[in-house]
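Here is one chain, start to finish.
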Amino acid sequence: MVYVVVGIAGILGALSRYYLGLFIDTWWHHIFPLATLSINLIGCFLLSWLTMYVSRLNILHPYLVTGIGTGFIGSFTTFSTFSVETVRLIQHTQWSMALLYVLSSLWGGLFMSWLGFQIGNILFIRRTQKRLSLESSGGKK
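Its structure:
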C-alpha cells in the first residue's frame, strides 16, 4: 500500500514542480535557473518541516508521511535538473552564474532545511505545551 501512496504523491509532486516551473518561467526570462532553485529551496524547507512537525504529531498515517516526504517532495525537487542546468551554464561560459547557482543551491538549501527544522520544532513544542496546559487545567481554559 505504501508504494501506491508514494506513487500517487510522486505524480502530484512532479506535476506541481512542472506547473510551478512554468509559472516562474512566465515572468522570469533570464539565463539564471530561478525556477529550479526556488522549487528545490521550497522542497528543502518542506521536508525539514514535515519531519520536525507533521510526522511527530502522529496525526497522519506513516504511509502518508512517507508518501509526502518521499513521493511528493522527492519528485517535487530535482537534483538532476540542477546538475544539467549547472553544466549548461558552464558550457555557455557563464561561470559567475554557475557559481552563484551552485552556492545559492547549497547554502540556500541548508538554510531552508534549518529554517523548516526550527519552525517545525517550535510549532511542535508550542502545540505540546498547549496540550499539556489544557490537560493540567482539566480542559478548561
